[in-house]
């Protein structure tokens, strides 16, 4: 009598062999390492793109304030229209009244025009727009200016002033720091901003009176 096919033991062929638990764990480990590498690359890419965008914005803000200082210097003529022997440096808002009176060689916030419309503010949002006085403390970028004499003003002669412009903004994918960025500008002389926490861009120019 022939052995029934139902009771005959089956022989597993080599091609039908399944995966062992060790093989599955090894595959999962390799996949996890690859996924972690991809996520790290993605984060680095996002961070790099954000830093590049903020750096470009900070450069634009710095150039904007250099142009504003140069425009303010156009009011500085020597000799002045009302006095033929001296210059009218006192008519400038940012150069003398804000910078060279009490802040010579020190960083200060150029906020003399902040109440104008539109405002010319030292504080800027993420889109590079000037912020009004009511929004100070929510800025992502802040501008500091430092003025110092290169050629001392003589009677009836226009001197030469060095103007340094610095733009600060926080590092990394972080929100706006408490109190904004501008307090770091005014404290820069006694306590410079921590380079681990803030990026900075510096631009220098020379300001000279315009002879009439």
Describe the protein's topology.
Layout: H1 21-73, E1 77-78, H2 95-100, E2 107-108, E3 123-124, E4 141-151, E5 160-170, H3 182-186, E6 198-208, E7 210-211
Parallel strand pairs: 1-7
Antiparallel strand pairs: 2-4, 3-4, 4-5, 5-6
Give a written overview of the molecule.
The chain is an alpha+beta fold. It has one domain. The chain contains 3 helices and 7 strands, in the order H-E-H-E-E-E-E-H-E-E. The longest helix has 53 residues. It is elongated. The relative contact order is 0.15.
Quick synopsis:
The chain is α+β, with helices and mostly antiparallel strands and 212 residues long.
Give the key terms.
single chain; 212 residues; alpha+beta; 5-stranded antiparallel beta sheet; two-stranded parallel sheet
Please provide the ordered H/E string of secondary-structure elements: HEHEEEEHEE
How many separate structural domains?
1
Strand content: 15-25%
CA gyration radius, whole angstroms: 32 Å
Biggest β-sheet strands, sense, barrel: 5 strands, antiparallel
Shape descriptor? elongated
Low-pLDDT windows of residues: none
**Helical segment count:** 3
